[in-house]
Amino acid sequence: MYKLCTHICDRFMHSLPQLLELIHSFSGKSTFPPHPRELYEPCDYILTLGGKRLRPALLLMGYELFRDDVEQALPAAWAVELFHNFTLMHDDIMDAAPLRRGQPTVHTRWSTTTGILSGDVMLIYAYRFLAKIGEPEIVLNLIQTFNRVATEVCEGQQLDLNFETRADVSIPEYIRMIELKTAVLLGGALQMGAICAGASQADAEHLYHFGRLAGIAFQIQDDLLDTYGDPAKFGKQVGGDILQNKKTLLVLKTLEVAPEAERLRLAQWMKTGIENSDEKVAAVRAIFDRNGIPNLIATEQQRFQNEAFNHIGAVNLPEERKAVLRKTVEELLKREY
Amino acid sequence: MYKLCTHICDRFMHSLPQLLELIHSFSGKSTFPPHPRELYEPCDYILTLGGKRLRPALLLMGYELFRDDVEQALPAAWAVELFHNFTLMHDDIMDAAPLRRGQPTVHTRWSTTTGILSGDVMLIYAYRFLAKIGEPEIVLNLIQTFNRVATEVCEGQQLDLNFETRADVSIPEYIRMIELKTAVLLGGALQMGAICAGASQADAEHLYHFGRLAGIAFQIQDDLLDTYGDPAKFGKQVGGDILQNKKTLLVLKTLEVAPEAERLRLAQWMKTGIENSDEKVAAVRAIFDRNGIPNLIATEQQRFQNEAFNHIGAVNLPEERKAVLRKTVEELLKREY
C-alpha cells in the first residue's frame, strides 16, 4: 500500500484528504471501552460531532516529512485529537455554551458532572494513546512536549477567562493568550509528528514555531473575518464579535491608535444593547474603518505569517518534501476578507 | 545522609514519619509557577489543606523495598499526590461538597470554572512529575501503570455516581466500585514505587495486589466504623452514613441476608427524614445487630486483608525488608470498632 523508495524526492506523500481518511479509519476502531457507558458515551458523542481533524493531520504531516510509514504515528495523532476534544468538553462548561457544531454540548445533553468526568477520562486516554507509540525514548520525548503544550493550553484558557473582566488588556497580552490557548497545540502537533519520526531537535523546533506562528496568524485573521468576512463564505454570523462586545484585536487596536473621541465612541457602543444589531455593527465597523484598523491588523497578521514560513523554510529537507504541509497551511490562511 | 551498604539486611530503611518528612520538604519546593495566579493558586491551596500523604508514602515504601536512594522516587511520589488532589478537586464539584478538611472547597472559594481548570492542570502536572524520573524505559512503564489506574479511578467515580440512583446495587458491584475509586490507586502507588526501583514485574504486581486488597479492606472497615466506631476516635460523626441514607455495605448486606420484614423496616427508615437523628441511628443499628451484619462485614473485611498479606508475603525479599510497609498497613487496618 505504501510506496517506499530510497530516493527521497520520489517518496509517496499523502494529500490532506488521504491523511484525513487514515485518521477517520483509525478513529473508527473503538477508542473507548463500552463500560461504564455513562462515562464513555459522551466521549464518543463529542468525537462524532465532527471537526476538521486539523491537529492530527498536522501531526501526520510533521511525521511524513521524515518517514514514509505514517500509520505508525496514528496513535499520537489521535492523542492530540482526544486532548483537543477534552478541552472543548471542559471549555463548553466554563463558557456555559449550549451548542457545539449545532448539537447540544455534553454538559447540556447530560450534566456538568458528566462533562467534567468524561473530559477527565478523555485527557487520560490522550496519554494512553501517546504511550502506544512504544519506543521508550520517543514516548518520553513526546510526553514532555505534550505536557508542556497541555499546560500552556490551560494557561491560555485561564488568561482568556481573566480578560473577560479586565478593561486594560494590551495587544501583546492578547496575542500571548491566543498563542497559548490555540496556537501552541498546532505547533505542538507538528513537533510531535517530527519527534515520532525521530527528526533532529532543530527540525522539530522549527516545525513547532511554524505551527505556532501560523496558528497566531490564523487566529488574528479570525478576528478580522468575524467583522469583515464575506457572509456567504464565513461560517458564523458576520459581526458576531461586535454584537457580543468581544475585546477582539480590532477593538484593542482601536483603543491603542485612535483619537480619544473615537475611543469613547467605541466604548459607548460596547456598552449598548442590541436593539438594532445592523446599526451597531455598521457603526462599530465605521469606527474601525475611519482609523485604518483592518489594514493595521492585516499587517500584523502578515508579519506572523511571514515569520511562520521562515521556519518551515529552515527545516533541513528538500522543498518538494514540504509541499503538502506548506500548501495545507497556505490554504488555511488564504480565507478572504 | 543516606547510609548505603552492600549487606541487604543492614540497609537503612526510613520510618513512615521520615518518609512523610521527605515528601513534605520535596513538596515545599514550589510545584507550580506563580502565573497565571488564578490557575495555580487553587492548586497550592488544596495541597496545603493537608491530608495524610499516604499515597506518596506508599510509593516511597514500594521503592525502598528494592533500593536505598529513595529521594530518586520523590517526583513519582509527588505525581501520585497531585493526581489524588486533582480527583478531590473535581469530585468536590460533582458532589457539591462545600467543605474539605474543614475548609471551603476550591469551587466554593473560587468557582466551578476554577475547580475544573485548576484540576485539569494538576492532572497534567502529575504527568510532568512522572516524566522527571528521566530513565525512558522506567517512565514508559510508570506512565502505562499510571494511565491504567487513573482510568480506573474515573470509572470508579462514575460507578459511584450511578449507584446514587440505582436501587439494585449488588455487593460485588459495590466492592468493585470501592476497588476502582480508591483501592487501585493505593496498589498503583506501591507498584509505581517498585517500577521506579527496577523491581521484577512479578514483585511489582504482588505489591499492586497487596495495596489494592488492603485498600478494599480499609474501605469496608470505613463503612463499619461510620456506624460502629468509637465516637472519641472516629474522625467523623458516627452514624453519618445512616443519616445520609447511604447505601453502604451494611445496608447492602442487610438487603441480601435479612428476612423480608427487616428489609422493609430498613427501607422505611432510609426514606425517613431526620427529625430525631439519635432515634434513627439507633433503630437502623438495631436492624444491623439483629441480623448479625457487623460480623458478616468484618468477616468479609478480614478475607480481603488476609489475601492482601499473602501478596506481600510473596514478594521475593527477606521479611525484615518488608517490615516498615507491613507495619504501616497493619496500623492502618487496626482501627477499632
Description of the structure:
2 copies of one chain form a homodimer. With 337 residues, the first copy, chain A, is mostly helical. In chain A, 69% of the residues lie in helices and 1% in strands. Chain A has 15 helices and 2 strands. In chain A, strands 1-2 form a two-stranded antiparallel sheet. In chain A, a hairpin with a 2-residue loop joins strand 1 and strand 2. In chain A, helix 4 packs antiparallel against helix 6 and helix 8 packs across helix 9. The longest helix of chain A has 29 residues. The radius of gyration of chain A is 21 Å and the shape is globular. Chain A starts with 15 loop residues before the first helix and ends in a 5-residue tail after the last helix. The relative contact order of chain A is 0.11. The N terminus of chain A is likely disordered.
Evaluate the radius of gyration of chain A.
21 Å
Overall mean pLDDT of chain A:
93
Shape descriptor of chain A reads: globular
Q: Biggest interface and which pair forms it?
A: A-B, 36 and 36 residues
* Unreliable stretches covering 5 or more consecutive residues of chain A: 1-10
In terms of DSSP E residues, the strand content of chain A is under 5%
**Beginning-to-end CA distance, first to last residue of chain A:** 41 Å
N-to-C series of helices and strands of chain A: HHHHEEHHHHHHHHHHH
SSE-based structural type of chain A: mainly alpha
Helix percent of chain A reads 55-70%
Tally of helical segments of chain A: 15
